[in-house]
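User: What would this chain look like folded?
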Amino acid sequence: METICKHLPCAIVCNFPNLNLVAACLVKRMYPEKTKVIAVIHNDVTLYYEAYCKVQKYIDKCLVISSKIRQTLISEGFPRDKIHLLQWRTVLGTELDRSYSLKGQRIKIGYAGRLVLGQKRMDLLMFLAQMLRNKGCDFQLEFAGIGDYESEMRVQIQQYGLADRIHMLGLLEHAQMANFWKRQDIMVSCSDWEGHSISQVEAMAGGAVPILTDVSGVQDDVQDGYNGYVVEVGNIEEMADKIIFLERHREILAKMGMHAHETIKNRQLEEDVLERLLK
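Assistant: Here's the prediction, encoded as structure tokens.
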């Protein structure tokens, strides 16, 4: 609180429901005309909703990153007029310059993110790979990222005889991600929960068809059956079936990939993200 008071008048951006938020709200109570509190919700977890609703009268604006988070916050009693949906821009050319694997070639599947058990459910992705192999799907799966489940994944790859199908790329520079997604036919995620996955948006911008669990942020980008597929959380069998369908219908794969790219392109043309942030 003393630190904030030294910088008055000021705006405090609170990204997490921690003591910084408490301090900002207390200063706002003391100096309402000199303090502006901007809260941000990055993830669809109860902790955010409970904390922000308790101090909502001291929060000037709350930035959320998905329509699901916005609706949940409203249902918990947070004032609708204080909530703003935060968008962001991603690398996106004017035209989609890429190709897709042809029938007879391995279908290319990509995942980018933390290699962890909690939230991201790397265990389910390993089960998915086994299921695809057992169902006769000819695939190549690339993992871009690092995490505490990585060593276990490497053990399972050898144990289940998947070394010729799964490639662990480690941590890639962000500048490499556009090319990573342009060489993938499909993007997968088995997350139990999200805020609004950046990988999801970047993959779609690169023309990769998303096949995702139904978590926060997915419905903002993915129209099931048009530019990707959405399955229930934990339902990897349905996810495998969707991948196999696209493996057998490569013309639909290419069409959905184009739709995915157009979805992100059109949204970025419609909204000036920088103008909204400055406002």
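Residues 250-270 form the longest helix (21 residues). If you want, I can go into more detail on any region.
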